[in-house]
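Notes from hallway chat w/ T.B., transcribed later so I don't forget. T.B. wanted the structure written out for a chain they're using in a teaching module, and asked if we could keep both sequence and structure tokens in one place. Agreed to drop them here.
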Amino acid sequence: MRSRRWSQAYPCPPVSSSCQGAVKLIEAAKKAGIRRFVLLSSVFADEPEKWGDPALAGITDYNIAKFFADQWLVRDSGLDYTIVQPGNLLDEPGRRRRHTRPRGREQGATP
């Protein structure tokens, strides 16, 4: 299957270097014979309805770019993939705890 060109498949937002850079890396991985791609995304990048939250309002352009890159990987790359969506960082002392997914959000295990 022939890949669509990024610019033909998705109109890119103003932060296009972020989404186009990810797509270029995905395509380079395919050419190199890599079968699984791990993409560092952003919290709720795949849930645009949550971008209006005050905690996320400052990174809307970034989430848009991540959304488009995530979509390319999932729908167009043909690769196995893992998308990591880290949560918000807090400006407070650490509690020495880790969560593998946001509370209340059902997701499968990371392969």
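Follow-up for T.B.: Residues 104-111 have pLDDT under 50 and may be disordered. Might be a good example for the class.
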